[in-house]
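We modelled each protein-ligand pair independently. The example shown here corresponds to the zinc ion entry; the chain sequence is given first, followed by the ligand as SMILES.
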Amino acid sequence: MRGIPAITLTLLLISQGASTFAQNNPEGETTTTTTTTTEAKGAPQAKEISDQKTRSDEFALGSKFYQTKKFAEALKHFQKAAATQADDGEARIMAGYCYYSLKQYEKALKEYTLAADKGKLISVRNKAQRLAQRLSSYLRGICPGNCLKPSMPGWRKMNVPGKPDRLVWMVYPYLDPEGRGGSEFWSNDHMGEVIEYVNGRPINKGVCPICNGTGKVSLPK
Ligand SMILES: [Zn+2]
């Protein structure tokens, strides 16, 4: 999903001086194909076409090396693709993957964060943001899953009949189909178990498969 047509459109619009288009329309990828009957202006268009060609050539080269696990080589090409005006942020994300595979995690995080901030498509920015959040969790050693963890905000003391006073509780509110509110709660005896909403109701799905119930994770060294 590289959204080539959308990039083409955006570039065409920018070349008409409608540069606000890209900024005002974060949904650039779903835009309809309005307008663009500009007279062919030799120089700028040629430049844009060559920029796009560089982007797609370098991206293809990067992908080739990436598939054969030559990450340092792949990285160089994704960096070149990412440096073009034509990149929508995907090449930057790929550069992040390369750093990740090379175990340079801080650098990977930097690439994801850049793509999350500057990506041209909202889908790319969202993807980059998810990657950045997940990696940042890993760098702090905290499981990125939905498991109950001491570090979560919201643990509270509650008077629960028949339950010991030492427990603290996490409350998960819900609305039933009639719109009536209710809540389920789990205590710290369930640390490391995953609570997820299914059809609007909180469900305990058992021990977290990401951290094996420890709440902690680490990156390969
Ligand atoms: Zn977990």
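The longest helix spans residues 42-67.
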